[in-house]
Fold this sequence. Notes:
By secondary structure, the protein is of the alpha+beta class. The protein is about 25% helix and about 35% strand. The protein has helices at about 110-135, 145-164, and strands at about 25-35, 55-65, 70-80, 85-100. It has a four-stranded antiparallel β-sheet. A hairpin with a 2-residue loop joins strand 2 and strand 3 (about 70-80). It is elongated and about 65 Å long. The chain starts with about 20 loop residues before the first strand and ends with a helix.
Amino acid sequence: xxxxxxxxxGEGAPQAGGQEPPRVALLTQYxxxxxxxxxxxxxxxxxxxxxxxxxxxxxxxAAQLGDGQFExxxxxxxxxxxGENQVFLVELAYGGLFALANIxxxxxxxxxxxxxxxxxxxxARRVIADATRDGGFMPLIIDPIDFTALFRRKMQMAQxxxxx
Length: 164
């Protein structure tokens, strides 16, 4: 069997020098919690209703479950209001179980809070779209999220809290 130019064969064998290549595997993904509230149904579903203002909040958390296994959860909350009236509220915690191997310790947190949620996000967005559509509204398609910027804000807030 021929070797790849990077020193590993096609089956993930050790690279030249005996080092194993870094590996990230998504073992499973799942809806951990889903809530949809439609308090004004059926009145809020009638034609001619003004378009609601929608506020979306995003958070990501990660926890180690075992040796090299981590749960990453994206929390998405979409709150739609028309004036003071609640139109709908959808809350989703969407998780994934990841196996990490040969990842440098100083990059694990970034990997878990940036790359892992980036892999999960399209599936979480679909769950939100389906829930709002099934609730009688146009599907809510959430714009792509910059998880790098979210990570940086989180780290900056942690530094500021540490200094205070």
